[in-house]
Amino acid sequence: MSKILVVGSVAYDSVITKNAEASNILGGSATHFSVSASFFTDTSLVACVGRDFSRRDHEFLESRDIDLQGLQYLEGETFRWTGDYTENFNQAKTLDTQLNVLANFQPMIPKTHQNHRYVFLGNIDPKLQQSVISQVETPRIVAADTMNYWIESARESVLQVLRLVDVLLINDGEARQLAEETTLVAAAHKILSYGPSTLVVKLGEYGACLYQKTGDGLSVFGVPAYPLKKVCDPTGAGDTFAGGFMGYLAAMDRADLAAMRKAVVFGSVMASFNVEDFSLDRLRNLTFQEVCSRYHEFEKLTAFNPISPQDQFKSMTK
Amino acid sequence: MSKILVVGSVAYDSVITKNAEASNILGGSATHFSVSASFFTDTSLVACVGRDFSRRDHEFLESRDIDLQGLQYLEGETFRWTGDYTENFNQAKTLDTQLNVLANFQPMIPKTHQNHRYVFLGNIDPKLQQSVISQVETPRIVAADTMNYWIESARESVLQVLRLVDVLLINDGEARQLAEETTLVAAAHKILSYGPSTLVVKLGEYGACLYQKTGDGLSVFGVPAYPLKKVCDPTGAGDTFAGGFMGYLAAMDRADLAAMRKAVVFGSVMASFNVEDFSLDRLRNLTFQEVCSRYHEFEKLTAFNPISPQDQFKSMTK
Asked: Which of A27, A145, A182, A283 is a plausible cystine mate for A13, CB 3.0–4.6 Å?
């Protein structure tokens, strides 16, 4: 079982949906990722919070056995984000961002974390992502997220990160924007030419796709989303997905094609739980039995029979 | 092997895409459907064309062994449609529609077709769809398509059709619009309460979903789209999908859950070929060997391993 290092944000989110809203709830890419990954393996978090970060939230992360040595307490307030899903459940409209302590964040990787074999770079300034890569020793897999803001405002820096990572996990719109392509498959081909050997595209309600370079081209895997009748709050679904994805790979210390596919399913499982409640509340009482049981639901959701000798069609007889 | 009756449009399309364009090419819902279904079973087409419908196109349909007794030649020109995909490959912008003979179309089902066990109602006026249902004897499966235009302008009539059909095949946006729901799963629940026991939602680049009423709720199946690097022309993909879907069910004379899943994969296979060229040109030289081989590609595209005893995670040991 290998360890994971995650660097990203810890936040207090305010979220508005059609049916409900919640204010100042625990969020942030590193938070969602680490809580999700903590189901699978030992996880070390590097991030910063303000003096207002609550003791209760700190203790919750500790209760998940997440190593918080790298959690810096800085002068000022914790990063705050307000998002609105009333128009579109797949994509929040950002109403307000207060960087607060995140404006001065300089990731410092504690000595004991520098040899972690699995590294996840949450969605922060690509310059900081590069700084993290320069501080770690010889990781087996470095995975990164990014977002439209960085693709637009710091494209060259994002491309530099891509030359250094093994896996990029982004959403549909970001993939098209990054590659400047209209179809997803063409975008995947282009993004894999930028550096990563693996691309995971998160499609929200439509599931996820995995694209991997192989000797003779591209291996593609697709899985639908778990069919939830009611989604409460999609915030953090992508990071929770990444936590399940990297969590599985690190727990098994595997990065082959078959393991990556299972990792995508575990990512989908974890994300599907995350959206059932605000913040990461659903993961607070989630059992591993429930994780396995939903993994099995994904098998049933995607199963179909092969062509059999009983299948007789008109054009076979011609 | 049961027979299929399809009622819909035969058209001459003009299509503009980013990379190419084509004018006055053979199209229409009944055309795409029947050519696709003809790979699987005997198919009878009921539609109308104008005096300008070319001998060559008539002979092509005959060469597919499609029964054309129900193809009415009316005074006037064949239905024409012009669509533009330059902005969005998943959704055409209609530039021009000339109903021509379609404006006076009254489907008359020839006596010999009235006992066909599988019936597909292409996207035409829901009043005409109802008229077809009243002319057939005791079909095993009636499936229908519709579109935003009818949902907006003739909602009550669409709902009347839904009470009479077994399967509705529509796209994502139409499903949400018809159900007035934002999430696809909630939309599926509502649409199945309108009458059909099965709903197929076509997601374009994201694949397709199948929702079926079962004794204790809803059975859901999802399959990604075949990852084509280059899409030439998506026109008719939905009808070609429906042709593969109904073609498989009719060929096997089965409508159980497992058969429906295979039918969705055959639909996806046929649609993936259709978009590779303009009109239905790719299907002109398609072999059944290629159909089977791509079906097998879908198995590989969606395969992942179950949880195994080798999978050891942190939270298992707690």
From this structure: A27
Which candidate in A63, A266, A284, A304 is best for mutational testing of the B interface (most B CBs within 10 A)? Answer: A304
Judged against a pLDDT cut of 60, whether residue B318 lies above it is answered with no
Average pLDDT over residues A284-300: 97
pLDDT band at A56 (very low <50, low <70, confident <90, very high): very high
Place A317 in a pLDDT band, splitting at 50, 70 and 90. low
Partner residue facing A1 (CB), from B188, B205, B314? B314
**What is the tens place of the pLDDT at every residue in B164-198?**
999 999 999 999 999 999 889 999 999 999 999 99
Contact (CB<8Å) A314/B38: yes
Residue from B180, B206, B270, B296 to probe the interface with A (highest A Cβ count within 10 Å): B206
Q: Which residues of B touch A296 (CB under 8 A)?
A: 306-307
Whether A214 and chain B come into contact, CB under 8 Å, resolves to no
B184 interfaces chain A, CB cutoff of 8 Å: yes
Enumerate the residues of chain B whose CB falls inside 8 A of the CB of residue A306.
295-296, 299
Over residues B204-223, mean pLDDT: 94
Tell which CATH classification among 3.40.190.10, 3.90.320.10, 3.90.170.10, 3.40.1190.20 matches the domain A4-303: 3.40.1190.20
- Which residue in chain B is spatially nearest to A297 when comparing CA positions? B220
Surface-to-core class of residue A269, CB atoms within 10 Å of its CB (0-12 exposed, 13-18 middle, 19+ buried): buried
Among B188, B224, B261, whose Cβ lies nearest the Cβ of A304?
A: B261
Could you give the C-alpha distances from A22 to A19, A54, A235, A292, in angstroms and in order?
11, 17, 12, 30
Q: Choose among B69, B5, B83, B2: nearest CA to B242.
A: B5
> How many residue contacts between A and B have a Cβ separation below 8 Å?
173
How do residues B138-173 score in pLDDT, each as one tens digit? 999 999 999 999 999 999 999 999 999 999 999 999
- How far apart are alpha carbons A218 and A213 in whole angstroms? 5
Q: What is the mean pLDDT of chain B?
A: 96
Check CB contact of A205 with chain B, cutoff 8 Å.
Answer: yes
Ranges of each domain in chain A: 4-303
- Specify the CATH superfamily of domain B4-305: Ribokinase (3.40.1190.20)
Burial of B52 (0-12, 13-18, 19+ CB in 10 A): middle
Candidates A89, A299, A310; nearest CB to B183: A89
Alpha helices in chain A (DSSP H): 29-37, 55-63, 126-135, 148-153, 155-162, 172-179, 184-193, 237-252, 257-274, 281-284, 288-302
Q: Which residues of A91-105 are buried (b: 16+ CB within 10 A; e: fewer)?
A: ebeeeeebebbbeeb
So what's the ipTM on this one?
0.94
Weakest-pLDDT range from A93-97, A128-132, A302-306: A93-97
Task: Specify the pLDDT at position B317.
Answer: 65
CB contact under 8 A, B291 and A18: no
Residue A214's DSSP bridge partners are A217
Choose the closest CB to B185 out of A65, A203, A227. A227
Q: What is the mean pLDDT of residues B231-250?
A: 97
> Is there a contact between B315 and A229 if contact means CB atoms under 8 Å apart?
no
Token pair of A127 as six digits: 């310059």
Q: Is B217 on the interface with A (CB under 8 A)?
A: no
